[in-house]
Amino acid sequence: MNFTSDNIIAYFQPILSADTKEVYAYEVLGRFIDNDGTVQSLGVFFTDPDTSHEEALRIDRIVKRHAFKKYVEEKRDEYLFINIRLAWLSPYAENPEEMITLQLLKEFGIAPEKLVIEITEEEFNASEEYIRAIVHYKKLGCHIALDDYGKSASNIDRLAKLQPDIIKINIDYIHRSERSYHYREYLRSIATFADSVGIEVLYEGVETERQLDICISSKGRFYQGFLIAHPQPSMRDVLINSSVFSALIETEYKAIQNKAIYAENMRNSLDVQVERFLLENPFDCEKIESDKYLIKLFDKLQDVKRIYLCSRQGVQISNNIERNLENSEDIVYHDYKNKNWAWRGFFHESLTAFAMGRKSCVSNIYRDFMTKEQMFTYYYAINDDVFLFVDFTKDTERMKAYAAG
Description:
405 residues; 16 strands; 2 domains; Beta-Lactamase; TIM Barrel; eight-stranded mixed β-barrel; alpha/beta; single chain
């Protein structure tokens, strides 16, 4: 088909923000009108290896011109996400002010601050000519988004060189997260890392409520996908599934609050049980036999997976006291004495709590290295040098309630 300015148009897909639950931006997507008058995506055209560099650039300019014109005519104030191939930037390495996108911004009177330059990760090239062009965009106030994050193995190199404002999570991870907790945890780890370095996260390709729920619980500010809104020819009166988005956001916020309340109530309940036991059975490290002492406490607590003691330095000073998996009435011992757990995340949490003057705390939920079971740990400072650790797993009522939040 012969593409011209008469049959090339732009569509706009809304991107919602968790903080306002409203449209934060629109991504510009290329469309063409076929001979039957049907609107078709230009995605295949742009990804076709037979499409020449020059032809792709020509069509992209038509799409951008249409999008910017519509943005001004409709008097929009949201951000615009536009896709740019790095190969298109190389001719402007020495004179980046002449880049076509910047010329179009001037022509239509659009502030650079309203533009988000979206770069596909797999295309990223670390050459200085590209970096200079991207830096120029940033100097003018444009934001930079790294698309399809996670698809390539060299994520950290790309992030360090590009220093984006936003990363768009690879769509495959979001879809696979429905079937595997590995992908769900990876999404959370990306969001945590991004937050630590000042990068915002955008989840794209969200198609089901389950996927949206996973993304929201993984934490991240922006959301995009067919479940929320399809690409549309205008930014006025856009059709958005705002009810499901708002409902899931509120559900997640409520779950976080409930989990915090439950954790605190559970900590207080366990404190009462442990302190009653310590009052009736004073702890003296030099006189007691730690394993026998722990068995007595073990019998006083409900739903416990294992119990053990550590020093302030993280060195285990007792065996693990556990219930037999085949017969819960039987107690089994596992020798982990002198193992140092100071490197474990839950031990860091306990030290933080104790440093703040709290005698006890409850960890976040994590997975056991050996069994892969979901767990949380309750810690109690028996004295300044000895810490009590009590593990609960998904098979216990406490764990189920805590995970449910």
